[in-house]
Amino acid sequence: MSTFGGLNAAYSGLVAARAGLDVVGQNIHNVNTEGYTRQRVTTSSTNAAARAGLVAWGATPGAGVSVDGVSRLGSATLDAKVRATAATAGYTAVRATALGSIENSLKEPGVNGLSHQLQEFWAAWGELSNGTNAAAAAGVLLGEAGQLTAQISSGYRAVTAEWTAVRSSADALVTEVNGAAAQVAELNGLIRQTLASGGSANEAIDKRDALTATIAAITGASVRPQANGTVDVLIAGNTLVSGTDVQTLTVTGPTALASGNGPVQIEWAHHPGTPVAVDGGELAGALSLLGSADAGGALAEAADSYNEFAAHLADSVNSIHLGGVTSTGKPGGKFFDYTVGNAAATLSVTPKSATEIAAGAAGAGAANGANADKIAQLGAGRAVDGAGKPVDSPNALWSAFVTGLGVATAIELGQASSANLSASAAVTLQLSNSSVDIDEENVNLLTFQHAYQGAARVMTAVDEMLDTLINRTGLVGR
Amino acid sequence: MIPRVTSQTQMRSAQANLQASAQRLAQLQEQSSSLKTISRASDDPARAGNALAVRAEQRATAQYTRNADNGNGWLTTLDTALGASTSILNKVRDLTVQGANAGTMSPAAREAIAVQIDGLKKDLLSQANATYLGRTVFAGNSDAGVAFTAAGIHSGGSTPGVERRVGADSTVRVDADGAGIFGSGPDSVFALLSTVSEALRTSPATVSGHLSAVDTALNRVIAASSDVGARQARIESASALLVSAKGSLEAQRVQLEDADLATVILELKLQEVAYQSALAVTARVIQPTLMDFLS
Fold first, then answer.
1. Is residue B42 part of a domain?
2. Which end of chain A has fewer CB atoms surrounding its CB within 10 Å, N or C?
3. Residue B214: inside a domain, yes or no?
4. Is residue B1 part of a domain?
5. B293 and B212 in one domain?
6. Is pLDDT of A1 > 70?
7. What confidence score (pLDDT) does residue A196 get?
8. What is the tens place of the pLDDT at every residue in A256-282?
9. Domain boundaries, given as residue ranges, for chain A
């Protein structure tokens, strides 16, 4: 080592300590930054100068320290786990939210539920069969029937409104994915360029990881890192992002329930007509809710249940009502009217006044209430049709729907809460690896501070040595 | 593996724990204020299904009770009318026996009896036209307004009778067959009374011949009265059953839906203590860092 080599080595120590302090500073500044991954300066000792020529120099020490780079202490495994669990959690959360909101709209069990109104309706028929004051009892019956049809159609509207809400959220999700994918592609380019020129792209990688986690939570996409520092994002095996190339997704299909324009599906913009099999994430949850009843779409099934219930209620009441006569002896008409295939929304009460209600049996006297009693028996499940066969009570159909929806919601809520737990556990694991710990950074701060002081001391020592050599040598005996 | 603990993970888990604790607290608060264990079907689908069935049965029972009350009103009206008819016919029988003593009575006295019988006939007709809430109880389902015209002709409509449903499987007939009890037209008890008063005025010797017909009419009314009594006993026992069913259904509903206040309040208190201690511990744990101790 040359005479002044020591000074240079001490300088490299100062530089390394300062770089360490800078990185610690960066960590502490970003202690609460979302998605920030802690960093460390990486250093290595500089080899001694290579020997040149034939003269033996003897053993020489190394020439100080070199700052190699700033490493990012993330874990690809933990990141992948976060993405996978986020996809499951997103899927179940969307489904649980939608089913929960349908269930809330039922307001069962309780006095605000449809079941309560149904019992009032049957009781009104029972009251009419007493016939004590036909006009008042008939008025009550028509009122209760009107209320019942209003409640059925408002329940049905709650289902269709939920469908529309989920449908528009699918649009929003796809827009979000497309935006995130474009940013990932842009960051890919930036990172590739930075790394190729030997720089540190840690912050850009943090941003890209946050974006890919968002894409995974929405679509269940997988991420494949490439050697040049870029990542490919794949949805169902097809690339959404590859290097700096990006593809866009679109949503096609009907925008309202039962408008019958084929299924709602996700397609590649460059490949229209072919559905993309999104296999996880919020988007898959939304698509599974939006499917037709045959495909297991929960909302379409709920809407069908409403229609089935409304049609059964109307048919069973009508079949008995048609067999009775009004107080003037005319045969009864339909009590309920509806459009086939859209019963819940179109259900209406036909009679407008007491004289149109067929409360009596034919030829049994004007004040007879036998037919009203027969209809009231529908509520108790004891009604029989013209051939004497028992008619299923609409009560049973409604109760089966409520219980079925309750079971489905309970299962979905359970799955959502367990998926949420594992997603949160994965995030905790990721954070416990990548987040900044203030205590640790303080210790590092001290370490680098002392390293700086040490290097400075070395420099002072070399300086004093040179001072002795230059200024004090040769003054012996003077 | 014990994961690395950083201030961020500490904060995160503290937040998650506090959130979970607060959620449980809110749930218990909702339960203690609403006193319901199931507020939506997914809380317990099987119990929710049962609750729907019990609520349906409760409403049906309330309606059966109203039907039974209405039926009881009909039968009470019938009972009163038939009791009054019995005493009227008893008086007619006494007067007929009195009038049959043709030899000892002056025409004026017979005329007085005949006038009395004519009056009783009007009384009987008004009893036979007894109404309950605007419905004539002896005319079945007819809406003619009166069961018997002034000429004693029944308006019909007693078959089938008026039925009131007092249970899912049981009905009780609450009217009485007016034509069967009082007869109709020339065969009616009203025509008989006219015949008797006519006989008193014109042919006193034939009056005693009508005595057995009066007895038959009287017996028919008495028989109908006991039949009505039997049906009233049935409807009253049905009412009693409905009252006890109402109580047991409400008990079932409470068991299915309602929360036990003592348990909920105890759990609420426990959860409050847990939440407060979690808050206190979090506040102490999160504060210090190494920076507090470095000079």
1. no
2. C
3. yes
4. no
5. no
6. no
7. 93
8. 887 666 788 999 999 998 889 998 999
9. 5-73+436-472, 128-156+301-402
The kind and range of the H/E element at B108 are helix B107-128
Asked if ipTM goes beyond 0.95, one says no
**Are the beta carbons of A131 and B135 separated by less than 8 Å?**
yes
CA angle A308, A311, A312 (to 5 degrees): 85
Interchain CB distance below 8 Å, B289 and A442: yes
Residues of A in contact with B64 (CB under 8 A): 126
Q: Quick: pLDDT tens for A367-397.
A: 888 889 999 999 888 887 767 788 889 999 9
Q: Residues A452-457: contacts with CB within 8 Å, 24+ apart?
A: A452/A13, A452/A14, A452/A17, A452/A18, A452/A21, A454/A13, A455/A10, A455/A11, A455/A13, A455/A14, A455/A16, A455/A17, A456/A10, A456/A14
Q: Are residues B238 and B276 in the same domain?
A: no
State what percent of residues in chain B have pLDDT above 70. Answer: 97
Q: Note whether B215 and B129 are same-domain residues.
A: yes
Q: What is the mean pLDDT of chain A?
A: 90
Count of the separate structural domains present in chain B: 2
Q: Does one domain contain both B182 and B284? A: no
Token representation of residue A369: 């209430």
Q: Evaluate whether A281 touches A172 at the Cβ level (below 8 Å).
A: no
DSSP string for A126-156: HHHHH-TTHHHHHHHHHHHHHHHHHHHHHHH
Between the two ends of chain A, the Cα-to-Cα distance in Å is: 32
Residue A464 distance to chain B (closest CA, Å): 31
pLDDT in the model for residue A134 = 66
Are A200 and A243 spatial neighbours (Cβ–Cβ below 8 Å)? no
- Do B276 and B165 share a structural domain? no
pLDDT bucket at A44, cuts 50 / 70 / 90:
very high
The burial class, CB within 10 Å (0-12 / 13-18 / 19+), for B244 is exposed
Query: How far off is chain A from B188, nearest CA to CA, in Å?
Result: 22
Q: Are residues B212 and B75 in the same domain?
A: yes
Q: With an 8 Å Cβ cutoff, are B165 and A429 in contact? A: no
User: Which residues in chain A (327-366) have CB-CB distances under 8 A to chain B?
Assistant: 327, 360-361, 364-366
Q: For residue B183, give the 3-state DSSP assignment.
A: coil
Give the Cα separation of A208 and A231 in Å (integer).
9
- Flag if A438 and B56 touch (Cβ within 8 Å): no
Whether this model's pTM surpasses 0.90: no
**Domain span at residue B122?**
51-254
Do B204 and B166 lie in one domain? The reply is yes
In this prediction, residue A261 carries a pLDDT of 62
Q: Which residue in chain A has the smallest CA separation from B74?
A: A132
Q: Which residue has the tokens 């809380």?
A: B43
B141 plus B272 within the same structural domain? no
Spans in chain B with pLDDT lower than 50: none
Strands annotated E in A5-112: 39-45, 65-72
Summarised one tens digit per residue, pLDDT across range A157-175 is 999 999 999 999 999 999 9
Q: List the alpha helices (DSSP H) in A107-133.
A: 114-130
Q: What is the CATH number of the domain that holds B109?
A: 1.20.1330.10
CB A284 within 8 A of CB A220: yes
The set of residues, in sequence order, having a beta carbon less than 8 Å from that of A197 and lying 6+ positions away, is: none
